[in-house]
Amino acid sequence: MGTATLNKNSMIEGSLWNKILGFAFPLALTGILQQMFSAADLAVVGNFTEDLGEACMAAVGANTPIMSFIINGFLGISLGANVVIANAVGRKDDKTIQKAVHTSLIVAVICGIITALIGQLIAEPLLRSQKISDESVNMAITYFRIYVGGLPVILLYNFEAAIFRGIGNTKLPFIALVISGIINVGLNIFFVLVLHRNVDGVAIATVISNLISSVILLVCLKKSTSAARFDRKKLHIDKAVLKKIARIGIPASLQACVFSAANIIIQSAINSLGTVVAAASSAAFNLEIFSYYVLNSFGQACTTFTGQNYGAWKIDRCKKSLRLCLLEGIVIEGLMVTTLLLFGRNLISIFTSNPELIEIGYTRVLFITTAHLFSLFYDVMSGYMRGYGISLSPALVTMCCIVGIRIFWIYVIFEKFRSFTSIMAVYPVSLGVNAIAIFILLLIKRPAKRAEVKT
Questions:
Q1: DSSP line for 173-238
Q2: The pLDDT of residue 50
Q3: Minimal CA–CA distance to 363: which of 446, 453, 288?
């Protein structure tokens, strides 16, 4: 992507509403497709492993919150790279863009290698602590070991995607994902139906597909004529840029990790209700996450648009970006939630024909997708503050509201009312409280007002 393309797609000039949609739509599709390909893992092992179907689904599902903990933690750091690059694009600071690109790529690979090694050591004790049923636990450990071994390429793709988001391009990560995702589905079928593997086969397919997507984006960065061009000779960690990335990324990462840790506790409670409930929850997760990716795309759009315009010192466009991300997000997210509520049972039946499992899964879809409207508000408002470089306070508020409430709920409310419904009720409560708290924080911080005073 050359400089002319960057100017044409500039976030600091021209109409905002269509550019926000043009940014958010491929980003949402990327997340949705990513989840669809993960759902393909679940569908293949659920339908084509004979008597092991439900046990395989529970094994893959038990890994979901743990993998979310790991991946989301590093996605928080990549968000720091996104903001630093977006600010630099707004200032037209090509040197900082170059330094941020190469620093981000090195950080991704090093963190991936270290985490993969640690993951191999803790795999068995970690999974056995999750109250997974006897028929699923060994398969869950196998899936974890293979998946975590692929973290260097998985994190590389995610950091590359953050680089492209920073310069305003969400289309190339989407295209890379489509190519690798199709390969992933094909490999799933090959490993399970042809080689008669189960969870190990779909895990290997996932790692291979992530390798392909990361290579595609690396080639695109290498061929780019923009300031974000990858040059192997320039690979080094710039301490000043790394510090900027860490200042924004570490609070976001900490928030994501603690958030995911609370979800691991929730998953453990779900697992304690038996294999059928765990399998149903796993199937439903693969639907509700579509809704999350839609709302999250507008949160990331708000971060990037605010970041670039703040870098260019166009504060009015920052404020307008917030309003439009909220308005457009409400409309699109509302349509997504409505679709999932109308067709939720039919979609869950893709994974299983068990009527009991379908009803339990739909209960999860009902509770969580409707609560995602609260998530939209706090995600966009948090993204807006991060665009200004305010990252720590939204992270602390979210950790206190969501994580605190969820841990209390599981250890107090769930212990008195042990049912799947009582677990699910924590989502609207915690997300609603957090949305209100983030709004109050935004009123206190008033980042646009403070930026205008500085001028």
A1: HHHHHHHHHHHHHHHHHIIIIIS---HHHHHHHHHHHHHHHHHHHHHHHHH--STT---GGG----
A2: 64
A3: 288
* Residue 15: CB atoms within 10 Å: 8
Other CB atoms closer than 10 Å to residue 448's CB: what's the count?
Answer: 18
- The DSSP symbol for 51 reads G
- Rounded Cα distance between 130 and 202, Å, is 21
Where exactly are the structural domains of the chain?
A: 15-454
- Rounded to 10 deg, the angle between the 151-166 and 94-128 helix axes is 140
Band (196; pLDDT cuts 50, 70, 90) = confident
pLDDT digit string (tens) for 433-445? 999 999 999 999 9
- pTM reported for the whole predicted model: 0.79
Q: Categorise residue 331: left if φ over 0, alpha if ψ from -120 to 50, beta otherwise.
A: alpha
Instruction: For residue 228, give the nearest of 42, 444, 9 by alpha carbon.
Output: 9
Tokens coding 261: 């840790």
Cα–Cα distance between 24 and 301 in angstroms, integer?
6
| Residue 96 to residue 242: CA distance in whole angstroms | 11
